[in-house]
Amino acid sequence: MPTTFNKLTVAIALASTALIASQAAASGFQVREQSAKTLANALSNAAAGAEDASFMAYNPAAIGNIDGNQVAGGVAYIEADFELQDASASNALTSYGENQSGQGGETAVVPSFAAKTQLNDRFDLGLAIYAPYGLSTKYDQEWIGRYHAVETELTTIDFQPTLNYRASERLNLAVGLRAQYADATLSNSLDLASIGASQASGAEAAFLATQAGQADGFAEVTGDDWGYGYTLGALFQVTDRTRLGASYRSEIDLTLEGDARFSSDNPVGQDVLADTQDADTFTNGGGAAELTTPANLNLGVYHQLTDRLALMANAEWTEWSSFDELTVEFEDSTPDSTTTENWDDTWAFSVGANYALTPQWLLRAGLGLDESPIPSAEYRTPRVPDNDRRWATLGATWMPTPELGVTAGYMHVFANDADIDQDGNKEENATKGSLNGTYEIEADVFALSVDYRF
C-alpha cells in the first residue's frame, strides 16, 4: 500500500462516491417521484400529460393546460433493497473476508407541492417545490465493505417559480427558475491499523500489521450548498385528441462545503489516529466537494384514443456525462484533487394507459425501462449499486367532484444484477482496499397525491 495516507485521501474516498449515489428507483441519483399520477403511468405522461399543477416539475408548460387556480401535493414512499452477495475484500496486509454479504437498502419519504394561478387569458404563474435528486443508504458498520461506505444521505430540494405563456389556443410556452438546495452526510470506516503499519517501522509496524482489519476508525463528511438553474417547456395540442410535450431542465453546479470528522473507539486505532493527527493528517477540519446535478430532456406524446382510453409515451435523456469528475478542495494547504467518474448519458423510455372506468374513477398503468450511467463494474461502488432497470406500475385517480382528485400509485422496479470490481491497487482505494461481488437490486415505490382546483 502507499506510504502516505492523509486527510485528502480519505475525504476524496468519501466524497467521490457518496455525492453520486444511486437511488434504486431511478438511475444515477435521480428522483422522479414528484406526482402519483406520473408514477402510476410509469412516467409515460411526464412531458405531455399536463393533468395538474404538479406536472410542472416535469414540464413547466403543463400549467397552461389547466384553467383557473389549483394546488397539488403528494408524498412518495421509496423502499430500496440492494444486497451485495458473494463478496470478497482485502488489502495488501490482510483479507477482510470471503463469500460474505451486505444489505444497504433504506427507505425514504419524498414530499412535493405545487400551485398555479391563471393571471389572465395569456399568462399563468406557478410554483413547484420538489426533490429532484437524493439517496438514503446505510450498511452495518461491521460489514465487509465498510471501508468503502457505511452511510450516505443526499437530499436536494428545488424551488421552481414558473411563468407560462399561452401563445395560442393550442400552444403553451413556459420558463421556470430553479433554486436548488443540497445537503449531504456520508461516512465509512477506516482501517487504522493498516494505515499505521504503512507509516511505522520495525516492531511497531509488524504489530500493527497483525491488527489490520481489526482496529477501525470512523470518518464522516458533511456539506451543503445552494445552486441555480432554469427549466423550459412547450405543450402543443396537435388535435383535440393528441398532445405533444417537450421540456428541458438545466444542470446546476454546487459546491458542498462542510466538515470532516475522524474518530475511533478501538485502543490501537486511537493510538494510530493520535499519531496521524500529530503529523497534521486525519485532523478534523473543513472542505468542499464540487457536484453537478445533470441536465435532462423530456419528450412525450398523449393521445385520447377513445372517450375512455388514453395512451401515452415518454422518452427522457439525462446528461450524466457532465459528471465526469469530482474535485475536492480544502481550506488548509492540502492540494486539490480530482477523481474521474466517467459516467455516460442515459435514456429512459416508458409507455402507459389510462382507462376511465366511471366518471369518478380513472385507472392507470405503465411500463418503463431506464439505463444506468455507470459504464462498468470498476466504476460501481457500494454507494452506487446501480444498473439498468425496468418498471411496472399501477394506480387510480378518484374524483369525488370535478374540482378534487385523489391519486394512488405503485411502482415495482426490477434491476439487473450488478457486479462490483473495486481494485485495491487504484490510488483512490488506497485506504479502502479491494471489494468484489454482485448486487441484487429491487425497489418498491408507493405514492399518494391530492389536487384541488378553485
From TrEMBL:
Any Pfam family hit: Toluene_X
MF terms in GO: long-chain fatty acid transporting porin activity
Signal sequence region: 1-26
Gene3D superfamilies: Outer membrane protein transport protein (OMPP1/FadL/TodX)
Membrane topology qualifier: Multi-pass membrane protein
Single GO cellular component term: cell outer membrane
Keyword Transmembrane: yes
Broad class of where this protein is predominantly found: membrane
Keyword Hydrolase in record: no
Alphabetized UniProt keyword annotations: Cell outer membrane, Membrane, Signal, Transmembrane, Transmembrane beta strand
Localization (cell): Cell outer membrane
Family: Belongs to the OmpP1/FadL family.
Alphabetical list of PANTHER family matching this protein: LONG-CHAIN FATTY ACID TRANSPORT PROTEIN, OUTER MEMBRANE PROTEIN NMB0088-RELATED
Name this polypeptide is given: Aromatic hydrocarbon degradation protein
